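Hi everyone,

Forwarding the result from last night's run.
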Amino acid sequence: MAQAQQRKLSSIDVSDPRLYQDDTWRPLFSQLRRDDPVHYCESSPFGPYWSVTRYDDIFAVELDHANYSSSSEFGGIQITDQPLGQEFANFIRMDPPGHTAHRRTVAPIVAPSHLANFEPLIRKRTSDVLDALPRNQTFDWVERVSTDLTNMMLATLFDFPWEDRMKLTWWSDVAIANVESPDAVVHSSEERVSELTRMGEYFRKLWDARAAAPPTFDLISMLSHSEATRNLQAREFIGTIALLIVGGNDTTRNSMTGGLMALVENPEQFELLRGRRELVPNLVSEIIRHHTPVLHMRRTARADVELAGRRIAKGDKVVMWYISGNRDESKIDRADQFIIDRAKPRQHLAFGAGIHRCVGDRLAEQQIRILWEEILQRDLRFEIMGPPQRLYSNFIRGIRSLPVRIVN
């Protein structure tokens, strides 16, 4: 019996993107957390890898960058290795000290003091978007709300030409696309590289103009004037721009959609929110935890190391499944449920932890908070008119479209 159970465990492969497109991942992670929380998958389309599935173990790996590397040199941050010679390095794919200097360059734009300056602008744009939505007819929430709001914020952060801002969404989709998916925006690594090279050419013109001018408070100017980043090589330049686009887009865009779905599917929580608007900040954290827009981050073992009683060999892939850690009942009470008045709403792994914690976490929270404050101000009520179209990916828990109707 024990041998049969072990054989069953050994066959579990949670790297299959179909699990997330079909939203059928929960039972497998529940089994791993219970029976084999640091699980070795010997064979997968991405090669052998370790799955770290419990909250505390994930946290331990996140904080131990001495033993677990994020560097592109060892494979980077995804279970999928970047094609050899086509690596796009950036600071999330670096270890200290390089990571520290690059991150420090862009951090000021999302510092709390500067976020206060964004508040009126985000609120005005959010109000305009909500007021323009049709009433009593179906529309795509992802297109009309989630994508539009995050796209405008990205253009502001880069001081990007407003008329071209949809390019930012396109490049974000290109960067994260699983080329094996029939509906992917690119269908090969070569096509992805080609599109991101075009992105680099566009940004290089902006970069050169900003570098030749006095510094301003936007991401391109900050990068082009910083001693740590002003001389980025071509591939690192593309990688850094792509990271900032994806980081500023996907967490917020998908959490905005995941939050609407969670509240509509849990109407008692929506009613609680309407009656207690002071819960909006709690709501924001619960949305991000419950949805978990980044499914995993990968590290590579720098040396032989032990984790939760398992021996991990130097060079092994170690995959931290945030989507599982955020469902760990031993750490989070009623973890599978959507509960907006939790005692510790910010106790989640969706932003990562330690030196690689999402640099824009507070901005993402701010945008989602303002969205729900403005929805409550208008007392909008929603009906989901059909199933979401989910992204085929084991990295981003993306929602490509969601048909919605405002019913008041």
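The two ends are 57 Å apart (CA to CA).

Cheers,
N.
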